[in-house]
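Long-time lurker. I teach an intro course on protein structure, and each term I like to show students one example going from raw sequence to a predicted 3D structure in token notation. This year I'd like something fresh instead of my usual example. Would anyone be willing to generate the tokens for the chain below so I can use it in lecture? Attribution to the forum is fine with me.
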Amino acid sequence: MSARQLFEQHAINTPKTTNKALKTAGARLVRMTVQQFAYEQIIKLEPDQASSQQFHLCLNQQQYTIKARPLAFGEFDVTKVTQEGSEIWQVSHFYQQLCAELTCAERVQQGKPQINAITAAYLIKEINHTWMSEAHLFGPDRVSSQALIDLPAEQIEGELRGHPWITFSKGRLGFSYQDYQKFAPEMRREQPLGYVAVHRDLAQFNASTPVQATEFLQAELGSDFERFCQRLTEQNLSPEDYLFLPVHEWQWQHWIYPNFLTQIAQNQLVWLGFGSDTYLPMQSIRTFCNLSDPKPTQATSLNTRVAKHHVKLPLSILNTAVYRGLPSARNRAAPALSAWLKQTFDHDRDLKRTGLVMLGEVATITVDQPSFDPLIAPPYQFTELLGCLWRENPTNFLNHNEQVLSQSALLHQDTEGNFVISELIKRSGYSPQNWLKQFFSVCVTPLLYWLYRYGVVFSPHGENSLLIHEGGVPKRLVIKDFIDDVNLADEDFPQLSTLPDQVDQLLLKLPAQELSHFIFTGLFVVHYRFIAPILGQEFGMSEMSFWGELRAVIESFHDENPDLKDRIDQFDLLRPEFERVCLNQVRLFTRGYQDAPDRPEPIIAGMMINPVGDAFAPFAQSIAAPQVEQRT
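-- Reply from a regular --
Happy to contribute to a lecture. Here you go:
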């Protein structure tokens, strides 16, 4: 087949986005942009004198009408953006006006941050890519929220829309459209993983238990292990000298082969082909769930079977603010941190009673990068190219009749307007208030134990945490992604004295009040502030009631643990205000699309009210009550 025929065949098979899906997706992204940019104080909505739930926005002398309800964090629940009566859905045009406004002379005179011309072009490219991905999620074959909660957790991932705060959440810069069709989670495409043999002189295996690399890889690869050994033997290479490493096909083509030429030529890196197991990409794109038959356990005489590990791989595309690599030092230390967390958990009766599930990062392979490691302060993505992390599968922790789903799924709204969290509440038989009380108790209590007792905080946002439920009733919290997101108190906490040196030197350490920010921002702001307006819209729950339930759970914990009073005062989670953390501003005003040795840091933009603090109640009374949406 000629090159022309191949191209034409691909073009014919390219799925066409319908105009309806494009408009629906575009209108959602415009609403999301207005809401999140107003929250970060990038833009300002001017109130309409005639209506408390209508506002005006001027961008580059273009007037927009915003239908919205003010919310607790100084943001708005935006339900419609119109111009001269027509709903705005042309995302790229809206961003053109936005970028023009962010460079206007008046803004310069006021000393406000500006967006430069290079950033503006790349920003529109990234939002266009996000728009394309979003449109695919409004296709006619999408699963209803009611049906979605009965799917296995890994299939739910392919229905979700991504980060609720970062507006360009599915840009995936580096992917072609063909790559998108092949690798994006919403394509729901099952796929094998490629494997390379990497010489032990170039790589390091680490595990959270004393297991040897060969033993672990034999269990994980099954019959592929012997097949790969045979391929090496056929090339007169000794299998004992190598580790077998899964690698993302895109990463191999774009980064590994061109930059490891010497190692490939000298057989330090040997392409082995694709493995037999099939995988499904999850929301983070570079983490995969193994769909193949579970393996039998060896620790019991019962004929039980265990689902294989999730696999996390480097994928050097720019998505949701960062390149998705695996930092070498952290990858090496991940199993040691998991071992310490698990051991600490197992010796704490209070923590175990919460039912918390911690998905251990049980093994890693980390590969040197000879072309880039010797450089002084190269861009961080150049030193995160090749490696693997194996994480426990949440399916193995489910009891009879229990189901699990990513907490990001709670925010999901299907094409008919139905939310997953609403369907869970209806299925549970609980009132919305009682369901929320149970949810907060299950999800917040274990995090408070870790914070107060150990000075350890996670980043428990929707993608990093899962919810185990039974018939819609919240039962247990699942947390993951330890080595990337665990942080420690920079205080004299004896409980941290047993932390392995390798881990202790890597993790970020902060004073107590700064550390509590990872609960406030990482949970309340990144996750719960998006749940609150849904329950208002669906059930008429006020923000006073929503945040009041959360405060009640926190206060109950404080009352039941008087031995932790000094630590509770030290972290001061109920203080009146917290710093306002901004993520979109980083892309617009500071980092943009420039390379740097370190990952980008969030911007702090003043203070904001704490919805579980004492100052919230008077403020909340001034907010208009939500109206339950009536659907036809």
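Some talking points for your students: Confidence is low (pLDDT under 50) at residues 296-303. DSSP finds 24 helices and 27 strands in the chain.
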